[in-house]
Design a protein that fits this description.
238 residues; alpha/beta; 7 helices; elongated; binds nicotinamide-adenine-dinucleotide
Length: 238
């Protein structure tokens, strides 16, 4: 994601990368690089993160010290990281979304609109497909979509990650989440509402990872000058 953001920023005359932070340096980068964010002494307007949960504690400490707004794209967070982000949002503006694309966030809105009419009579299942290099499963986006289903249900559903070894019938309160990995699939999410004799499928296909970088860069512009607090795509899409 860092490389894609770098390429996109080259096409944006009003935006520049002040510095890059990664445990691995890249000799082709044309900006200052730091392997430890605590060493970064370059002024910036906003921090954009796509990394790993291990990078979150020093990132948040850094942004708190510099009073810097931060866009957090990393998924598969630990509860400790989430708590740290929540606490820090009392002092700095933090934008967090498990999926920065316009399409997925509109899909979540569509889910919230249709689920109440279907929750008692249609089973809901989510299938996600990603490239074979993806480390976390299911995707943070699958959970984001499952949460959108549950947020709009009167009776909360139980997430079932795969069905291996399950011998009971599928209950209306089960919400199955299934991960497929292979090749270079950038990302696909299908939300299936299966009723008696009819099926509704909502599908989002990411054809490139540029959609996430574009969303994160729009969020970076959106966050400039914001008050401290937690923000997400819903705030930007209002
Ligand atoms: N929110 C979204 O829209 C969205 C989109 C794509 C990816 N992601 C998430 O963003 C994260 C990164 O995805 P990616 O595809 O760029 O992964 P990647 O593995 O290609 O890149 C992660 C980078 O982070 C660096 N890194 C890891 N731990 C670090 C640490 N402790 N300190 C400094 N650098 C560290 C690695 O060296 C690597 O260069 C994942 O959690 C992924 O799920 C979110």
């Amino acid at each position: 994601m860092g490389r894609i953001i770098r390429e996109m920023v080259k096409e944006m005359p009003d935006t520049e990368i002040a510095a890059g932070v990664d445990s691995v340096t890249d000799e082709t980068a044309d900006f200052p690089q730091f392997t430890d964010i605590a060493d970064c002494d370059v002024p910036a307007d906003v921090a954009v993160d796509f990394s790993n949960h291990t990078a979150i504690p020093p990132l948040i400490d850094f942004c708190l010290a510099k009073k810097l707004p931060v866009i957090v794209g990393t998924t598969a967070m630990t509860p400790e990281c989430l708590a740290q982000i929540e606490e820090a949002s009392k002092e700095i503006p933090i934008f967090r979304s498990a999926n920065m694309s316009l399409g997925i966030n509109l899909l979540a809105k569509a889910i919230k609109a249709i689920t109440p009419a279907l929750e008692d009579s249609f089973n809901v299942e989510i299938v996600e497909k990603h490239h074979n290099q993806k480390k976390d499963s299911p995707s943070g986006t699958a959970i984001l979509l499952a949460d959108a289903v549950n947020d709009s249900c009167e009776t909360k559903k139980d997430y079932m990650f795969g069905r291996h070894g399950v011998t009971d019938e599928c209950k209306i309160t089960d919400l199955g989440i299934h991960a497929i990995r292979g090749g270079t699939i950038p990302g696909e999410h299908i939300v299936i509402y299966a009723g008696t004799d009819e099926i509704i499928e909502l599908r989002h296909t990411a054809l490139s990872r540029k959609i996430f970088a574009s969303g994160a860069l729009k969020a970076a512009a959106f966050m400039a000058g914001r008050e401290p607090g937690m923000y997400d795509m819903n705030d930007m899409l209002k």
